[in-house]
């Protein structure tokens, strides 16, 4: 009982975690980083793929819809797969599929064919995101610390490296060779990290926490509403991340006459700023709490994206992208962690599905707005949604929920 009281009071937070939990944290971090690396490697080659397929802005937007459509459809079922087979095997299988499918876009020569292969890529991307986020939520509960931002920092760091590498080789290496290289790297990393992950059992839920399989059936109406609220905040965040991933480089290159390498560096800078924000996320959550993180982050992202979209020079736009990355950094991990704490894998799946619904709406919406108005004006929609997330975070502030606080 004294030990249990110490854990509940937080006095044992500094205790060194068991070796198995530390290994699990390292391996999950590797998969988060690999996911970001592969995804960023793809997005920085979108301008070249657009030219290769001859697609208009709206046609490209519809083709990019394939990623989000595949992701959202898969996320609906991945929570069930994680409960049945475990989040670790699902993570490994999806990592293999993600690595293989990233090599397909350069093989297409029409917007329709591009959309078809991007559905496959989206299936893998959506599946791995639900699976390793579910595993991370269990680990957060076992460690009793809000470390979720550190995993998403690894995703952003992988994105920064992937985008930076893509920018360096964009002018000298074809998209086919580049993305095939990502396939080889992804399969090698999975071959090393996958067996280690499969040999580690998911951590047991802490005392007093319900079984994740039973949690979704026992949620009260307030908890269900909270899951949906967190999911909508994730939607606003994913819309912004997807917009900068899919359209940021094109905006810099097309509207501000940036060199292809500089255009690719725009997403790298965004991902780098997001990485820094997420690396400090655990400390900020422990000191400030969830609501200030959402409110301040949403407001900061809104201001940064207005600058990034409307700035008259490349350098000002890059500064705006960096500010946006800092602002958006911790909104998605906070939303997914809280939804998972309330409803287990189903909560992660719900928040992720709504979140990537933002990506589902984002590419075609921005593409059509770019045709109707201009791409800079279309990108201001990111600022609008970030501001809405901040308002929702402020409007739904409530006394601290013991069920949520048990993870902090």
UniProtKB/TrEMBL annotation:
<feature type="transmembrane region" description="Helical">
    <location>
        <begin position="113"/>
        <end position="132"/>
    </location>
</feature>
<protein>
    <submittedName>
        <fullName>MFS transporter</fullName>
    </submittedName>
</protein>
<feature type="transmembrane region" description="Helical">
    <location>
        <begin position="348"/>
        <end position="366"/>
    </location>
</feature>
<keyword id="KW-1133">Transmembrane helix</keyword>
<feature type="domain" description="Major facilitator superfamily (MFS) profile">
    <location>
        <begin position="21"/>
        <end position="401"/>
    </location>
</feature>
<feature type="transmembrane region" description="Helical">
    <location>
        <begin position="317"/>
        <end position="336"/>
    </location>
</feature>
<dbReference type="InterPro" id="IPR036259">
    <property type="entry name" value="MFS_trans_sf"/>
</dbReference>
<keyword id="KW-0472">Membrane</keyword>
<feature type="transmembrane region" description="Helical">
    <location>
        <begin position="293"/>
        <end position="311"/>
    </location>
</feature>
<feature type="transmembrane region" description="Helical">
    <location>
        <begin position="179"/>
        <end position="200"/>
    </location>
</feature>
<dbReference type="InterPro" id="IPR020846">
    <property type="entry name" value="MFS_dom"/>
</dbReference>
<feature type="transmembrane region" description="Helical">
    <location>
        <begin position="226"/>
        <end position="250"/>
    </location>
</feature>
<feature type="transmembrane region" description="Helical">
    <location>
        <begin position="89"/>
        <end position="107"/>
    </location>
</feature>
<dbReference type="InterPro" id="IPR051788">
    <property type="entry name" value="MFS_Transporter"/>
</dbReference>
<dbReference type="InterPro" id="IPR011701">
    <property type="entry name" value="MFS"/>
</dbReference>
<feature type="transmembrane region" description="Helical">
    <location>
        <begin position="26"/>
        <end position="44"/>
    </location>
</feature>
<feature type="transmembrane region" description="Helical">
    <location>
        <begin position="153"/>
        <end position="173"/>
    </location>
</feature>
<feature type="transmembrane region" description="Helical">
    <location>
        <begin position="372"/>
        <end position="394"/>
    </location>
</feature>
<dbReference type="Pfam" id="PF07690">
    <property type="entry name" value="MFS_1"/>
</dbReference>
<feature type="transmembrane region" description="Helical">
    <location>
        <begin position="262"/>
        <end position="281"/>
    </location>
</feature>
<feature type="transmembrane region" description="Helical">
    <location>
        <begin position="56"/>
        <end position="77"/>
    </location>
</feature>
<keyword id="KW-0812">Transmembrane</keyword>
């Amino acid at each position: 009982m004294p030990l249990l009281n110490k854990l509940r009071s937080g006095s044992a937070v500094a205790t060194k975690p068991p070796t198995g939990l530390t290994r699990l944290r390292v391996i999950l971090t590797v998969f988060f980083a690999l996911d970001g690396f592969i995804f960023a490697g793809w997005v920085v080659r979108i301008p070249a793929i657009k030219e290769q397929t001859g697609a208009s802005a709206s046609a490209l937007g519809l083709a990019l819809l394939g990623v989000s459509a595949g992701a959202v459809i898969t996320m609906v079922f991945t929570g069930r797969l994680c409960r049945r087979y475990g989040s670790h095997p699902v993570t490994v299988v999806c990592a293999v599929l993600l690595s293989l499918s990233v090599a397909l876009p350069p093989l297409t020569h029409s917007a329709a064919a591009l959309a078809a292969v991007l559905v496959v890529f989206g299936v893998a991307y959506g599946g791995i995101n639900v699976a390793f986020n579910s595993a991370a939520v269990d680990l957060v509960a076992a460690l009793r610390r809000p470390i979720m931002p550190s995993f998403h920092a690894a995703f952003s760091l992988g994105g920064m490296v992937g985008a930076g590498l893509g920018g360096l080789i964009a002018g000298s290496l074809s998209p086919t060779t580049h993305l095939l290289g990502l396939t080889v790297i992804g399969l090698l990393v999975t071959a090393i990290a996958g067996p280690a992950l499969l040999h580690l059992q998911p951590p047991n839920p802490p005392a007093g926490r319900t079984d994740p399989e039973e949690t979704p059936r026992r949620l009260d109406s307030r908890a269900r509403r909270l899951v949906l609220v967190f999911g909508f905040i994730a939607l606003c965040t994913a819309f912004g991340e997807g917009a900068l991933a899919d359209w940021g480089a094109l905006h810099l290159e097309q509207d501000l006459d940036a060199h292809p390498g500089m255009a690719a560096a725009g997403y790298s800078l965004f991902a780098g700023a997001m990485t820094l924000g997420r690396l400090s996320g655990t400390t900020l959550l422990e000191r400030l709490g969830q609501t200030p993180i959402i409110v301040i982050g949403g407001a900061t992202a809104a201001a940064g994206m207005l600058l990034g979209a409307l700035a008259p020079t490349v350098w000002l736009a890059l500064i705006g992208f960096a500010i946006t990355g800092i602002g958006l950094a911790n909104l998605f991990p906070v939303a997914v962690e809280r939804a998972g704490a309330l409803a287990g894998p189903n909560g992660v799946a719900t928040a992720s599905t709504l979140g990537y619904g933002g990506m589902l709406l984002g590419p075609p919406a921005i593409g059509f707005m770019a045709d109707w108005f201009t791409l800079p004006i279309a990108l201001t929609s990111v600022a609008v949604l970030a501001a809405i997330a901040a308002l929702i975070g402020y409007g739904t502030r409530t006394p601290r929920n013991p069920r949520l606080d048990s993870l902090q």
